[in-house]
Amino acid sequence: MSDRVVLLAGGQGSRLHPYRTIVPKPLLPVGDRSVLELTLCQLADHGFTDVTLAVGGLAGLIRALLGDGSGHGVRLRYAQEHEPHGTAGVLKALDIDEPFLLMNGNVVTTLDYRALWDAHQASDNAVTIATHRREVVADYGVLRLNTDPNARSVLGYVEKPASSYDVSMGVYAMQPEVRDYITSDEVLGLPELVNRLLAAGLQVGAFPFEGLWFDMRRREDFELAQTRFDEIAPPSRRGRSLSVINGGLISPELVALSPVAASNGR
Questions:
Q1: CB hemisphere CA count around 164 (13 angstroms)
Q2: 82 burial class (0-12, 13-18, 19+ CB within 10 angstroms)?
């Protein structure tokens, strides 16, 4: 069983400075493997072996480390982006005429990709978005003011309040027809594409997931993922050790991240 996957691996990862100064964020380490290596092994375990990597300026390093994907149980194709077209715009240049998974190359999760795929196939959705409930804490004390412009007064004060949101995990199951809503060479993000589909009357579904999910663009998630590696990729998982670590491109100090070390760098 093999189904098509498009992995987006062309971003810059500026929010992870200084961790991303050596390698692109999809090759950053989680335990002794890179994000992409973990993802490829998980996809193969769920029967997704036809993978297209959409890559940018650091394509050579990614290609040198992953090759044709056979070491991770998949067949890799590479789609080189010379100019950025956004997370959705890149799809227009790809030859896709069947349903496919689209996912960000900076996601580390224990999501069952096959369960998402089956739910999408059983629906009438143009897109099914994997979602996660996440709490967002404000960085400030928030004031509640009265609405009288002539007598401003404070009615309440909450220090760093938290709100919960259903957020996109960066993993999508899609019908090939969604590409008809993308113009050639336009720069288009996935939120804009989803809103465009909704405006056209197409159905977009959600696939809630309560397990582990880390957005590796966020420094906090990157550091927390190191502490949960055994849950994400147990020793029995298929795959090889991380070449960028073995080759000396990442120092042991960077791999052995700790909250203390991270806080000292802030």
A1: 4
A2: exposed
Per-residue burial over 208-226, b if 16 or more Cβ lie within 10 Å, else e, is ebeeebbbbbebebbbebb
| CA 2 remoteness from chain centre | 21
Question: pLDDT tens for residues 130-179?
Answer: 999 999 999 999 999 998 888 889 999 999 999 999 999 999 999 999 99
Record: fold of 4-132+167-264:
Spore Coat Polysaccharide Biosynthesis Protein SpsA; Chain A (3.90.550)
Report the candidate in 178, 238, 182, 189 with the shortest Cα–Cα distance to residue 42. 238
Q: How far is Cα 166 from Cα 76, in angstroms, rounded to an integer?
A: 32
Please give the radius of gyration of the chain, using alpha carbons only, rounded to the nearest integer. Answer: 20
CA 219 and chain centroid, separation = 14
Total-model pTM: 0.83
